[in-house]
Amino acid sequence: MKTRARFHRSLVPTFDIFENRENTTDSSFGPLSFPLFVFRVQSQQWISYCDLELSHSNFSQVESIFSRCLRISTSVDLWRFYLDYIRRINPIDPTNLEAAKQTRSIIAGAFEFALAHIGQDRRAGEIWVEFLNFLREGPVRFLLPFLLLSAT
């Protein structure tokens, strides 16, 4: 059994070949993404593929990749990458309270989505802690500058 697993892992190429991607369209990488369909649970391959697209600022392609891989994966690393991506594209602006509330609800929804899929995994403990800290810091972090301004 170990020999078979080692053989299958050797068939999964890394996406280092994408590093030299220059002025190509996304459709040209269709055949190269074939291993992702054969070995769908190889989370490191999905993460490398997302990193490639992020390095070229192809955010719509990254979201397409997430829609293909997240529901089938139980990899805590892949879900952590997803949460980091969500926090990256949804920065919280503490000066605009309404926008901050909306952004926080998007991020909280992403945490809930991730924890619904991998929350029972023992390695998801750090994500639970991050989520609880995120919920705790919410109102206090955004009200503090306004409270200081109104006190003067």
Silhouette: flat
Radius of gyration: 19 Å
Q: What is the N-to-C order of secondary-structure elements (H for helix, E for strand)?
A: HHHHHHH
Distance between the termini: 71 Å
Structural class: mainly alpha
Overall pLDDT score = 75
Helix content bin:
55-70%
Find the count of extended strands (DSSP E, 2+ residues).
Answer: 0
What is the secondary structure topology, with strand pairs?
Blueprint: H1 2-11, H2 34-38, H3 43-55, H4 59-69, H5 76-89, H6 97-118, H7 125-151
Write up this protein.
The longest helix is centred in the last third of the chain and has 27 residues. The protein is mainly alpha-helical and 152 residues long. Helix 3 packs antiparallel against helix 4 and helix 5 packs antiparallel against helix 6. The chain has 2 domains: 73 residues, no CATH class; 77 residues, no CATH class. It has 7 helices and no strands.
Short note summarizing the structure:
By secondary structure, this protein is an all-alpha fold. The chain is built from seven helices and no strands. Helices cover 67% and strands 0% of the residues.
Top keywords for this entry?
flat; 152 residues; single chain; mainly alpha; 2 domains
